[in-house]
């Protein structure tokens, strides 16, 4: 194995590699792969471990610090929990060696567990969707040809070999989505040393799904290319994966989920639900979708009050003013919060749901890895897409008239 690895590393020298700053020793490139049934099983295990890490720890630990002045973002970590077992990257010699010592363990005696949060007795509801997303390849496995057909739109190819992540970059993603996605995978490798199987996958960092199910239906249809992304819909076969913002969104000053969740919990404590403003609140970028521009019509005016308080977010202005008006924890002061999709699904769904307000969801088309398991009236109040204003007003009026039922 060591001899084969040396040969493989020599081959890397003759290929074009894209190395992400301090990931250099951990994220490299590619090697020949396993047979398709093993690859299919490996993908299942990756998703199971990754979703399991979300359950056990409320998400993978480590705030992320990004030096945006560098040509490629340079990412370092600090331990955010006293009990964290994270092994930090030591990149002090990166400028000289172009590599970063990983010092990863290869085995673990037992699965990592947050001492403050014991493992649940059963898996969350969204775990069953792993089987559904991988169903198109359940009987055929995944072949090299299927995988290569996903390259058409993929931003990068990820390979995990012997606990190390290798990447071939095809095209630049929007902002640093790809970097933060890879960082999440590195955290998984640290949390479960020796348990993540060898695998290979294609990843697309664009919002909307592209693998249409209509193109792969019928008796003579070929198997679809396996392509990972952050969301899907009922007409697509893209494999859903947690979005990059769980590990931070540097460009708009959003913290990693574990840190932000604590902020949201503190924000929720500032006002009881009964004492909050009796309106439905939304703030975001309306220019990305017609449905959001339509939502602006529901704002209060001299002629009509639809019980909605809707605000357009100017991210350029926010950036210049230090994001003083976009702190998510300070927005948990209304009884109702509106979720509405953008160009596809929106990462804001988790922030809105965590705000301890009644969530009003405008009928969505897309889903991410956990929203398929949300149930109307139980987890949220559904809002009509073609009659938003009246639907929002009815929901708010009903909730304000039935406070004890809402609480």
Describe this structure in words.
The protein is of the alpha/beta class and 407 residues long. It is built from twelve helices and 13 strands. It has helices at residues 2-13, 36-57, 94-97, 128-134, 144-149, 177-191, 257-270, 290-295, 315-320, 348-353, 388-401, 403-406, and strands at residues 27-28, 64-67, 74-77, 156-161, 164-169, 199-203, 227-229, 239-240, 277-284, 308-312, 334-339, 358-362, 381-383. The longest helix has 22 residues, at 36-57. It is globular, with a radius of gyration of 22 Å. The N and C termini lie far apart (60 Å).
Give a quick precis of the structure.
Helix content is 29%, strand content 14%.
Rg to the nearest angstrom? 22 Å
Please tell me the overall pLDDT: 78
Residue runs with pLDDT of under 50 for 5 or more positions? 1-35, 55-86
Number of helices: 12
Which secondary-structure class do the elements indicate? alpha/beta
Task: Please give the share of residues in helix.
Answer: 25-40%
Ends distance: 60 Å
Helix/strand order, N-terminal first? HEHEEHHHEEHEEEHEHEHEHEEHH
Q: How large is the share of residues in beta strands? A: 5-15%
| Major sheet: arrangement of strands | 1-5-4-6-7-8
Please report the total strand number as a whole number. Answer: 13
Tell me the major beta sheet. 6 strands, mixed
Query: What is the molecular shape?
Result: globular
